[in-house]
Amino acid sequence: MITAATQTPVLSVRGLEKTFTVGGALSRSRVRALGGVDLDIAPGEIVALVGESGSGKSTLARCIARLEQPSAGTFLFEGDDIMATQRRRPTRAYRSAVQMIFQDPFGSLNPVHRVEHFLERPLRLHGVTGRGPGGRAAMDRAKARLMEKVGLPAEMLERYPHELSGGQRQRVAIARALAVDPRLILADEPTSMLDVSVRIGVLNLMRALCEEQGISMLYITHDLASARYLADRIVVMFAGEFVESGNAMDLLAHPAHPYTRLLISAVPDPARRTPFDPDERARLRREVLAPTACDHGSAESPCDQTSAVFHRVGGSRDHLVRCGRYAPPADAPGTALQLSSPNDQKGAA
């Protein structure tokens, strides 16, 4: 895997915030969906963003895709400050470079069009092929190649979405994203509505495409098993903020934040010799929902007043956790860290 230490990150998010107004146009009620997140994704890296529903995962993806306007913060795409250079709306080049795969394969394809329409339209709009002499033949070849990439026969180009299975529709959605040669794919729970028997095939497809074409991916999911299987790195999100990050295998084997441990405790595991202690789950839930109940805080510095910064934990320099229990002594050298690609951690005072 190429890391940001050797190349400019494909995506570099800093302090991104999003607040929604609720209750009508005259309402002053606000809901914070993102609380100032930082994230780097390296070229060719697959980052899984995990957390429960409502934690802000999809909002982050929609902000990066420019389907939502962030309330604050910046993000750079391949070194370009998108919020500064494309303030009002994204350019067609950005739309081409950053593609999104949605959760619902049944709703993301218009039922009145054949499959060929979903591939031909982006190829034409972004000028990939289809113009000039021989354009029609080139277009047909391009559509057939895209279908081959996602493991579908070219004959399916003549079918309508209702004639395809859920897995086949999601493969068409992936082919549509690939049509414009993206450098970053935002996959918003792309397997959650598929039968369990076909999920592994879609995950293998996405992994192979990223490896073969060097595409980066932000994979959004609440399924820890698929995150472990697909991703290079996992970032855990809770209440609009990142709380833990690390190598996928290491993080799930040695979770440090109470919220991460609570998520893992809810996953059925036939290899677990004894059921997860319900008292332990109750304690973790109290620590997450009421930080003052955390027994790792102190009277002078309870968890809800501890500076919310990341610290390295365990034996891996890539494993970061945002939790006061891991804070160094007050007189120790500064170790606050930004959440970035594994080999590009920044020290702070």
From TrEMBL:
Region feature (Disordered): 325-349
Annotated ranges, domain ABC transporter: 11-264
Database matches in Gene3D superfamilies: P-loop containing nucleotide triphosphate hydrolases
UniProt keyword list: ATP-binding, Nucleotide-binding, Transport
SMART domains given in the database record: AAA
Family matches, as Pfam families: ABC_tran (PF00005), oligo_HPY (PF08352)
Bias-annotated ranges (Polar residues): 337-349
Keyword field contains Cell inner membrane: no
One MF annotation (Gene Ontology) recorded for this entry: ATP binding
Coiled coil location: none
Family to which the UniProt record says this protein belongs: Belongs to the ABC transporter superfamily.
Protein name: ATP-binding cassette domain-containing protein
Annotated organism of origin: Microbacterium aurantiacum
